[in-house]
Structures are given as structure tokens and as C-alpha cells.
Amino acid sequence: MKRKTKPESFINKPSYPGGKKALDEFVKSNLRYPEEALKTRVEGSVKIAYDVDVYGEVSNAVVKAGIGYGCDEEAVRLVKLLKYEKKKYRGLHVVFHNVIIIHFHLPGKVVAPTPSQVNVVYHYKETNAANNQSK
To answer: How would you class 46 by CB atoms within 10 Å of its CB: exposed for 0-12, middle for 13-18, buried for 19 or more?
Structure first.
């Protein structure tokens, strides 16, 4: 008699509706660059750890690695707006721990052009000093 195999995972992790692409789009559209970070021209990444309950609600958002200047608070605010899919876990109340990294890049950042070779052309007229003196 063949023994029944267990499914790969007893409890599947919650996923964001639409996948990673939708999550990235949500972050891009809802991110508000902090005024203080704009003034001081701060860029970087903020790492946030958070929990997702069985109802898809985000709680306990904590900054694990931050850059300050209001970016940490903005990243926490943004993570708390996330809504995951509600799933049933065979009657268990399961809390999942996730980590997300939110990148802060200055808007309209101008990338310096690569240095190119500069060609200088000189135009000169040859004069004979001996001819100028005799005249």
C-alpha cells in the first residue's frame, strides 16, 4: 500500500494581489518623498519588517535599517497601507513575518553625462615677420 505524501507546504505564505509587480507599482504610486529628505538631498533604502495576519492586515511594522530624514516614517506609513489576500489556514490563526526594502531616489535626478572627447580646432594665419618689418 502506497503512503500518501504531504503537500509541499502545510500553510502557504500570503501573497500580495497581483504579485511582486503590483506591489512595486503600489509602492511607486503611493510613495511621498519626505520634505526634509528633499531639502538635504538624501537617498537610500529603508528595510521594514512587518507581520501579516490571516485577514491580510499588516501590523507591527518596524524599521530594521533606515536612513532618517523622514524616510523611515514614510516607509512605515506605506507598509501599513498594504493589503494582502485573505486566506483560510485550516482554522489556525497564523501570523507571517515579511521584510520589504523601500528605495528612495530623488525625483528628477539628472544623471551626469559621460565625459566625451573634446576637439579643439585652431585657425591661425601665418605671417612672415620679415615681410611686416620691411614695409
So the answer is: buried
Mean pLDDT by 10 residues, the chain (135 residues): 60 82 90 87 90 88 88 92 81 83 77 49 58 54
Does the reported pTM lie above 0.90?
no
Q: What angle do CA 108, 113, 117 make, to 5 degrees?
A: 170
- For residue 117 the three cell numbers come to 572627447
Residue-by-residue DSSP string for 46-107: EEEEEEE-TTSBEEEEEEEE---TTHHHHHHHHHHT-BPPP---TT----EEEEEEEEE--T
Q: What is the rounded CA–CA span in Å between residue 63 and residue 58? A: 14
Q: Enter the C-alpha cell of residue 88.
A: 483560510
Q: Which amino acid is at 113?
A: P
Contact 75, 27 (CB under 8 A): no
CA 72 – CA 66 distance, rounded (Å)? 6
How far apart, in whole angstroms, are the C-alpha atoms of residue 2 and residue 22?
A: 42
